[in-house]
Design a protein that fits this description.
Blueprint: E1 3-11, E2 14-22, E3 27-31, H1 38-46, E4 54-57, E5 60-61, E6 72-75, H2 87-97, H3 102-115, H4 131-144, E7 149-153, H5 161-177, E8 181-186, H6 189-195, E9 198-203, E10 206-211, H7 213-218, H8 223-229, E11 232-245, E12 250-265, E13 270-273, E14 283-295, E15 298-305, E16 309-313, H9 315-321, E17 328-333, E18 339-342
Parallel strand pairs: 3-8, 3-9, 6-7, 7-8
Antiparallel strand pairs: 1-2, 1-4, 4-5, 9-10, 11-12, 12-18, 13-17, 14-15, 14-17, 15-16
Helix pairs in contact: 2-3, 2-4, 3-4, 4-5
Bound molecules: adenosine-5'-triphosphate.
Domain Mop: 278-342
Pfam family, one: TOBE
Keywords: ATP-binding, Molybdenum, Nucleotide-binding, Transport
Length: 343
Amino acid sequence: MTLDAHIFVERDNFELDVALTAEPGEVVALLGPNGAGKTTALRALAGLVENNGEIWIDGVRVDREPPEKRRIGVVFQDYLLFPHLSALDNVAFGPRCRHVPRRQAREQAKEWLSRVGLSDHVRKKPRQLSGGQAQRVALARALAAEPKLLLLDEPLAALDARTRLDTRAQLRHHLSAFPGATVLVTHDPLDALMLADRLVIVEEGRIVQTGDAATITAQPRTDYVARLVGLNLYRGRAQGGTVFLADGFPLVTAAAQEGEAFAAFPPSAVALYASRPDGSPRNTWPGTVTSVARHGDALRVEIAGAIAVAADVTPAAAVHLGLEVGREVWASVKATEVRSYRA
Ligand SMILES: Nc1ncnc2c1ncn2[C@@H]1O[C@H](COP(=O)(O)OP(=O)(O)OP(=O)(O)O)[C@@H](O)[C@H]1O
C-alpha cells in the first residue's frame, strides 16, 4: 500500500512535474492555488489523464493498467453516485467489480454504510440524500472496493459550513482506519491541516514545499504558503543576526544565520506609528497604507514601503492613527519577533 509516483503531464500552456510518495496509512494533502495542477495530479494517478511518468503501488507499476485494475478508490467531486442505484447498490458496486458474489457484496456494502453512519439510508437513491450523506456513500463505495490507494478531490467542497465541520471529523476518523495510502486535494488549508499527515504544496505544476503542518506553518518557503499561514515572509542573505533583503534592507532577526535565508514574522508583531518611533525597535521603516480590511477582531493593514508588510492592529489603534489608504505611517518589528531560517 505504498505509493511511489512521478507524474509528468504536458499541456499547451501547462506542465505538471511532481514526485509523490505515500506510506501505508499515510494521508498526504496536495494544497495549492487555483490552476496549480492538483486535480490533474490526482487524475493522472487514477488513470483519467495521460501520464508520461511512472506510478508504482507496492512495487508494481500500474500506470499502464486501465483505471479499474489499479486498486485505486476515488471520491471525486464530479465522480457522482449512480443516480438509478440505491445507496446500498452504489456501495456494492465496489466489491462487485472485484467479482465478489452479489449477496456477499451487498452484505459488505451494508457493513460499510453502517460504518459511515448510514444504516437507515441503504435503500435511498442519491437524490434522496443530503450532500453530506452522498459524500459518505461515495466514501463507503470507494473503501468497499478495498483499494490500496484512496484519492479524494476536494471531498468537502460541496458541503455547507456546518455539514463540512461534521463530515471533516468523520472523514478524519475513516481515514485513520484506512490501511492504504491516501492522497487528497484541497484548496482549504483547514482541511489539509486537519486531515493530512503531510502536506505537499504545489504551485505552477511543481512541488514548492512539503512537510508536516507544524514545519510548514513555522517555516513557509513561498509567498503562497506564507499567506496561507498568515506570515510576512522575506528572502535575503543572512550575516549574523541580520538578513539583508534583495534591495539591501537590513532586517534584524532573533537568531544568527549565515547565507541565503528566509525571515518571517506575523502581522501581529508589527507596530504602526504616525511618526518615527523613538528608542528601541531595531526594524523601523516608513511606508504607505495600501489597504485596510477586517481580519477577525483586528484590522489587517497592508503597507507598501522599503519592505511590503501586513500589520494587524486593533480598531481603536486604527482610529487613533487615522489609518486609511494613502496614509503615511512608520512600521516597526522587534528583532526578537523575526524568525530566520535557511533558504
Ligand atoms: N481538461 C483540460 N484540458 C486542458 N487544460 C486543462 C484541463 N484541465 C485543467 N487544465 C489546465 O491545467 C492546469 C492545472 O489545472 P488543475 O485543475 O489540475 O489545477 P488545480 O490545482 O486542481 O486547480 P483548482 O484548485 O482550480 O481546481 C490549469 O492551467 C488548467 O487550466
